[in-house]
Write a structure and sequence with these properties.
197 residues, alpha/beta, 3-stranded antiparallel β-sheet, 5 helices, 8 strands, disordered C terminus
Length: 197
């Protein structure tokens, strides 16, 4: 579904990591860790095709759903309609109710997005990924703003996705239960050179 082959990431003229290789197949997960500023979000953006690698190659033709710090939901729409907008674009309009249920948001379906709390907004952003129907999920700091109960919902949604053959790439500094995940510790992938000309 996704493969990195000797990938180097450069941002702002500085190499963040180099020579990174891994393969994500159906039902698998990879867990990207490391301190802030080391390149976790950049790795997710590389996987999404939003950045190009400075060296190496990224392959994989699976449809991807991306979770970043922005939910990109219309603030004025009720939550269910805001999610339905994206689900329709993904050709997955029938997935919204199940996604709301998976993240314990069904009772908030008619509430405008602007009235949701920080944690509710984060769960709504995760519900957008769940509703997408994409086989490959790219999750950048998915646990931010989640309490223990919401983190459990996230972990269950991830487990269901993997059990159905989906794959997950997660970048996080917060512990998330991902059994048998491929560990990618970016603090172990520091480049030999501090800057790139």
């Amino acid at each position: 579904m996704l493969a990195f082959d000797a990938v180097t990431c450069v941002r702002g003229g500085r190499a963040l990591f180099e020579g990174l290789s891994f393969t994500l197949e159906q039902g698998r997960a990879a867990l990207v860790t490391g301190p802030n500023g080391i390149g976790k979000s950049s790795l997710i953006r590389l996987a999404a095709g939003l950045l190009a690698p400075a060296a190496g190659r990224i392959t994989g033709d699976a449809t991807r759903a991306l979770l970043t710090d922005q939910a990109s939901l219309d603030e004025e729409l009720p939550l269910a309609r805001a999610l339905a907008f994206w689900a329709q674009l993904d050709g997955a309009a029938g997935n919204v109710a199940a996604a709301l249920d998976a993240l314990a948001l069904s009772d908030l379906a008619d509430i405008p997005v602007r009235l949701l709390s920080t944690g509710q907004r984060r769960r709504a952003a995760i519900a957008r990924v769940v509703a997408s129907g994409a086989p490959l999920w790219l999750l950048d700091e998915p646990a931010n703003g989640l309490d223990t109960a919401a983190l459990n919902l996230l972990e269950r949604a991830i487990a269901r996705h993997r059990a159905s053959g989906g794959a997950i790439l997660v970048a996080t500094h917060t512990p998330i239960t991902l059994p048998d995940a491929i560990p990618i510790d970016l603090s172990q992938r520091l480049p030999r050179l501090a800057s790139v000309a």
